[in-house]
């Protein structure tokens, strides 16, 4: 009997601890992609706080690098960036070239789970992405960490309508699109290009041929014009024959 009471007490304690972690927003972070899981689990809409003097929000109670900017949620996990229009995904991986600059400018101190290569970097400055991602990225993004703070854009409104959709009520992808279209009117200022699987390359043009995507359409237009000319020539020949016949009749008379 005593062992049974101890077991019941242990179960009750585990349940209370689990409920407490959800109620206070202490949720684990990771990302679930088709066929890949790096561990996101947000049963409830997270608390989001604006980073002072930045148009970006961070999630102080999420044990991970979780942000919101320009209408999208951003996660930095495993040295990769992921973006989603909903707080618990699905997520798309975004390459370093396409991550918005204001996301990259978030100071180190707001990364709740900073990776090891952040160690020793100034906490009130952005991560050293140029040093981390190499010269090619740095050359293409010169001056990314220098900007006019007086011209900072306003933060996008938070999609608070998503608070009503947690746990079992979390919508499918098609439902997410419809809900966003209905309740969220923000127009993003930065266009994001998620990484896509490589596509088969079109056959290369032969010597002397231009690599023109409109070339096929132009060839079709030329064929149409030629066919039109042939029709006009045929009609003109018919009219000439009719005129010749009329002249022949007049001579007989």
Structure description:
The longest helix has 38 residues, at 215-252. The chain is an alpha+beta fold and 253 residues long. It has a six-stranded antiparallel β-sheet, with no helix packed on it. It has a two-stranded parallel ribbon with strand order 1-6. It is built from six helices and ten strands. The protein has helices spanning 2-23, 101-104, 129-133, 135-140, 173-183, 215-252, and strands at 27-28, 32-33, 36-37, 49-50, 57-58, 62-63, 65-69, 72-77, 80-84, 92-94. 34% of the residues lie in helices and 12% in strands.
What is the topological layout?
Layout: H1 2-23, E1 27-28, E2 32-33, E3 36-37, E4 49-50, E5 57-58, E6 62-63, E7 65-69, E8 72-77, E9 80-84, E10 92-94, H2 101-104, H3 129-133, H4 135-140, H5 173-183, H6 215-252
Parallel strand pairs: 1-6
Antiparallel strand pairs: 2-3, 4-5, 5-7, 7-8, 8-9, 9-10
Short description:
With 253 residues, the chain is of the alpha+beta class. 34% of the residues lie in helices and 12% in strands.
Shape: globular
What percentage of amino acids are in beta strands? Answer: 5-15%
Biggest sheet, spatial arrangement of strands:
4-5-7-8-9-10
Tell me how many strands there are.
10
Q: Radius of gyration, Cα only, in angstroms?
A: 32 Å
- Mind summarizing the main beta sheet? 6 strands, antiparallel
Q: For the residues shown, what is the average pLDDT?
A: 76
Helix percent band: 25-40%
**Structural class, from secondary structure content?**
alpha+beta
**Helical segment tally?**
6
Q: Termini separation (Å)? A: 133 Å
Uncertain runs: 11-26, 196-222
H/E series = HEEEEEEEEEEHHHHH
């Amino acid at each position: 009997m005593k062992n049974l009471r101890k077991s019941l007490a242990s179960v009750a304690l585990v349940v209370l601890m689990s409920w407490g972690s959800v109620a206070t927003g202490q949720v684990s972070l990771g990302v679930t992609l088709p066929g890949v899981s790096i561990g996101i689990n947000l049963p409830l809409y997270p608390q989001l706080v604006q980073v002072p003097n930045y148009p970006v929000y961070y999630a102080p109670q999420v044990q991970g690098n979780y942000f919101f900017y320009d209408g999208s949620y951003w996660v930095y996990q495993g040295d990769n960036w992921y973006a989603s229009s909903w707080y618990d995904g699905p997520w798309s991986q975004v390459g370093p070239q396409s991550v918005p600059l204001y996301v990259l400018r978030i100071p180190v101190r707001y990364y709740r789970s900073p990776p090891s290569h952040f160690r020793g970097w100034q906490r009130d400055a952005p991560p050293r992405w140029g040093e981390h991602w190499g010269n090619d990225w740095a050359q293409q993004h010169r001056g990314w960490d220098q900007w006019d703070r007086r011209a900072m854009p306003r933060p996008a409104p938070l999609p608070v309508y998503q608070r009503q959709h947690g746990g079992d009520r979390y919508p499918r992808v098609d439902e997410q699109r419809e809900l966003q279209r209905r309740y969220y009117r923000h127009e993003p200022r930065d266009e994001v290009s998620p990484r896509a699987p490589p596509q088969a390359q079109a056959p290369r043009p032969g010597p002397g041929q231009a690599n023109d995507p409109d070339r096929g359409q132009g060839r079709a237009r030329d064929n149409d014009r030629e066919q039109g000319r042939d029709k006009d020539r045929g009609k003109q020949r018919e009219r000439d024959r009719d005129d010749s016949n009329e002249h022949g009749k007049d001579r007989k008379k």
